[in-house]
Amino acid sequence: MTTLKIVVVVGNTSQRSRTKVLAETIAGALHAALGARLRAHLEVLEIANLAPHIGTALAPSQLGEEGAEAIRSIEAADLIVAVTPVHKGSYSGLFKHLFDLVDHEALVGRPVLLAANGGSHRHSLVVDHQLRPLFAFFRALAIPSAIYAAEADYAGYAIEPGPLRDRIDEAVGQAVALLLARQPAPDLRLSA
Fold first, then answer.
1. Considering Cα of 9, then 125, then 92, then 167, what sign does the dihedral take?
2. 22 pLDDT band (50/70/90 cuts)?
3. Domains in the chain: ranges and CATH
4. What SS3 state is found at 2?
């Protein structure tokens, strides 16, 4: 059985954030949904940790080892989970900068689960107006159901059962179905 590589990119710029909670919840739901059907390695890349390694690079050739490794991980992922906070109606600048460093051909046909977190539901279209076009540029396969969370969807820094959890389960179900459909058929030939 092949091991899939799932890379979760968390666009938070601080260590404690609801965006990080949203990303962790999506990652947990993916792990549970994959179960024994597919083996997966999950890697989490946080902008809060990557900022010193990517912030001044204008091209991939200017990246140090940690920044270059993050780009290689994204480019080699079987599934990308892109989760960003909303800043002034869009994704964070460092989130965009990270993807500016990804080769424009690297994500063609790659599944991407999109998620965003904002202060209110007024920003809920950020997924369709900002994130989908970004990944359409890469010709990636955006999962049809995206996830948007507002501050009102949390109990402090926790996500409880309810509409947000249902949206997570729906998007994760679609991502898993796409991953299963992309797996090669087993070789059923009888050995002689």
1. negative
2. very high
3. 7-181 (3.40.50.360)
4. coil
Alpha carbon separation from 19 to 4, 33, 130, 184 (Å, rounded): 24, 21, 17, 34
Q: Which of 167, 88, 162, 91 is nearest to 133 (CA)?
A: 91
The dihedrals phi and psi of 36, each to the nearest 5 degrees, come to -90, -5
| Eight-class DSSP state of 118 | E
Q: pTM for this one?
A: 0.92
Residue 37 corresponds to which amino acid?
R
Residue 145 contacts residue 167 (beta carbons within 8 Å): yes
Contact 83/8 with Cβ under 8 angstroms?
A: yes
- Res. 13 pLDDT band, cuts 50 70 90: confident
